[in-house]
Amino acid sequence: MEHPAYxxxxxxxxxxxxxxxxxxxxxxxxxxxxxxxxTVRKRFPITDGYISAATxxxxxxxxxxxx
Length: 67
Description:
There is one protein chain. The protein is mainly α. 51% of the residues lie in helices and 9% in strands. The protein has 4 helices and 2 strands; from the N terminus they run αβααβα. The longest helix has 11 residues, at 6-16. The mean pLDDT is 93.
């Protein structure tokens, strides 16, 4: 079952990135306000320096899917 906030989070992420679905660590830092890229890597499942907008939206709902 989909988390109630997932679609809202996804919409906000896509609006922030101009519709891009593949985000860099810099994008995630800008969206979340986290300053340290190490913190971003620790909190989100970054693969080869990228994360999908859908995965980020899921993580922001509290659904952790770490590598």
